[in-house]
Amino acid sequence: MEVKLMNINLTFLAQIIQIIGCLCSLWVYIDASGHKIGRTPQGGLFNIGAGWWGVLSFLLWIVIFPLYLIKRKKLIALAKTYHIEPKARKFKIIIFVLICALLIFF
Asked: What are the transmembrane regions (predicted)?
């Protein structure tokens, strides 16, 4: 009986972490695309667009989300000079939400 209770608690905890990861990744995309963060001529390791920030945050949340928070001010400053207008932003947000919902509820 104790094993089942422990298993249920771990499953619940895993779902909570999954929900938090999905919401954080969604926020990363909304924030990055809202600030028009994109590729710049300067190059570098973090020279990626808002879509890639969102996808990478979704796949590697524990690493990319804190990294985005650390680099956010610099990325926003670069975006003021080299702003990129996101294409189909609302559509991408809807797709992102649907994927997160499928992952969480199924």
From this structure: 12-30, 50-70, 90-105
